[in-house]
Amino acid sequence: MPAFDLAIRGGTVVTATDTIRADVGVRGGRIAAVADRIADAARVIDAGGLLVLPGGIDSHVHIAQPSGPGIVMADDFASATRAAAAGGNTCVMPFALQPRGASLCEAATAYRAQAVGRCHVDVAIHLIVSDPTPAVLGQELPALIAAGYTSFKVFMTYDDLVLNDRQILDVFAVARSTGARVMVHAEGYDAIRHMTERLERAGQTSPYGHALSRPELVEREATHRAISHAELVDLPIVIVHVSGREAMEQVAWTRARGLEIHAETCPQYLTLNAEAMKGLGSDDAMAGAKYVCSPPPRDAGNQAAIWSGLQRGVFEIVYSDHCPFRYADEAGKLNPRGRTSFRWIPNGIPGIETRLPVLFSEGVSKGRISLNRFVALTATNHAKLYGLYPRKGSIGPGFDADLTLWDPNRCETIRQENLHHGADYTPWEGFPVTGWPVMTIVRGEVVAEAGRVVGEPGWGQVIDRTVDRGGMAA
Ligand code: DUC
Ligand code: ZN
Ligand code: ZN
Q: N or C: which end of the chain has fewer CB within 10 A?
């Protein structure tokens, strides 16, 4: 019998710290050896001229999430993980959302059941706590954390999700005592409501109103408030999808005071502009709806600030915030109410398949970040922050054989027609990139190759985690 099930030969292995010419030997779905030469394998994949990267981990995606009356998310687990695989990802982390008035445990169980048997890549599930009743705080949340749902998100905005300050403090306290990781969507509900009503009264109801209703200071204020609450409870929170300089400065200020805090951003805040929501150059008045997400994309100055935050280590993670709605669809961006005001346009854009090429191209190929930093930002730090390390997130003996073979020189143009998600558009249509995933391997099995997703859904597993706060590095 050969010593290895699979050998990946002749590539350049890249981790968050090292870049080496090495072969990778896989046995039983795990990496068994990284060596100068691996000879004795049942299957050999030639990685000559390619980078061998830890598979992308996208630690913040929305899949089949309830989205309000008449609105349907464009991806289920099969289509979202198909797109993830094609885009070089081996693990994604979506959210089980607790509807108000419902049990968090029941929401988690039902959501997990939707995933089991349908995924192309591995999945680990976060929670969204929208109704922190005494039963949720006292029993359900601690029980779910102990059962492997070790991270959850809370919102400071959205009618159906917003928590008030007292509730935020209460859930932070549960995280403090259980060791769970809390992610905070920091935009201020009342300020957004005030701005929305003001804009509507002034007749500014088109998609661009979305950007005007959520200016940077709305994000900065909420970020500061979340940080203050976290300090009171002594909890190192995660500020998710930071879009602007001012919120970023709050994170840097917190660290300068010696406090632990984590911060993440997304490709949209590095490459998209709020101007796109004006739909200029299109005769479709709603075209800007394709870019409506929260926080909204900002301006060139903020893009530059976020890039500098990536370079200086303010941000530890780049995830997609994949939240797909079809555009030309009454259950999506063009729902009847959405045509009357931006406030009813579902928030979110697709990005699970384009995250890695966009960041590689704009970051590594353009010389803004190193290859090793790219790996940290797209895989290793996700695993470390969210309890998947050392099972996932790097290349070395014992890690799951989750690998992406990457052609750093391949030039492509992002086109909807080539993508695998359930949405009917991409905000990056026509975006040129240098660097492209050519093969995705999950626990030793090829799941995508040359732009095709191979194999049936069901290879991807739902992974439980255990609380672990150690080992995080930017
Ligand atoms: N905003 C969110 O809070 N989540 C998903 C997408 C979005 O735009
Ligand atoms: Zn959010
Ligand atoms: Zn999100």
A: N
- Please name which ligand lies nearest the alpha carbon of 323: 1
CA of 155 to the centre of ligand 1 (A): 10
Give the model's confidence band at 469: pLDDT under 50 very low, under 70 low, under 90 confident, else very high. Answer: low
Q: Which residues contact 159 (CB under 8 A, 6 or more apart)?
A: none
Q: Is the CB of 186 under 6 A from ligand 1?
A: no
Taking a C-beta distance cutoff of 8 angstroms, is the pair 50, 12 a contact? yes
Q: Which of 377, 354, 361, 330 is nearest to 427 (CA)?
A: 354
The mean per-residue pLDDT over the stretch 367-386 comes to 98
Q: Which of 58, 61, 62 is the pocket-test mutation for ligand 1 (most atoms within 8 Å of CB)?
A: 62
Convert the pLDDT of each residue in 30-82 to its tens digit.
999 999 999 999 999 999 999 999 999 999 999 999 999 999 999 999 999 99
- Exposure of 117 in the CB half-sphere (CA atoms within 13 A): 2
Output the DSSP codes for 294-329: SSPP--HHHHHHHHHHHHHTS--EE---B----SSS
Q: Is 347 in the pocket of ligand 1 (CB under 6 A)?
A: yes
Token match 């359930």: residue? Answer: 422
Q: What is the pLDDT of residue 455?
A: 83
> How would you label 193-225 residue by residue, b for 16+ Cβ within 10 Å and e otherwise?
eebbeebbeeebbbbbbbbbbbbbebbbbbbbb
Ligand nearest to the Cα of 184, by number: 2
CATH superfamily of 56-365: Metal-dependent hydrolases (3.20.20.140)
Question: CB neighbours (10 Å) of residue 150?
Answer: 26
Domain boundaries, the chain: 4-54+396-463, 56-365
**Confidence (pTM):** 0.98
Q: Provide the pLDDT for residue 468.
A: 72
Residue from 178, 157, 82, 162 nearest 129 by CA: 162
Q: Which amino acid is at 246?
A: E
* Class of the CATH-defined domain 4-54+396-463: mainly beta
Instruction: Tell me if 67 CB under 6 Å of ligand 1.
Output: no
- Atom number of ligand 1 nearest to Cα 347: 8
**What is the CA(116)–ligand 1 centre distance, in A?**
24
